[in-house]
Request: fold
Amino acid sequence: MRARVLLVDDDVRATRLLARMLREDGFDIEVALDGATAIARIARDALDILVVDFQLPHADGLVIAQYARSRRPDVPVLFVTGYPEIVERKKPLLFPHPIVLAKPVAYEALSSALRDAETALAARVSLPQEPT
Reply:
């Protein structure tokens, strides 16, 4: 089973192109073009990985990541942003810390980070549960 990835960015053309490329590589991608839509999507259904820009209309990426983590504390968060230095300073607000990739992002770097996140999720799911 592939991880469900929510890709959030307000650059419509770039986001659609990136989503298409990721789908062609086997990722299960859903797109949101602003913060409000992303939060509504997260509230409606579980997601496995969040890929989010920092500066967005209606809610910034940090707010979206915090909301996603309030629903699922271990959700991997990848910031793809033109403001990596700002996100790096705000990393302590999210734990586990997000991965930060600077725009323009190399597709290979994003794809690799997503595969790593999927692998980590699969390892967590396959761990035996401790008896209560």
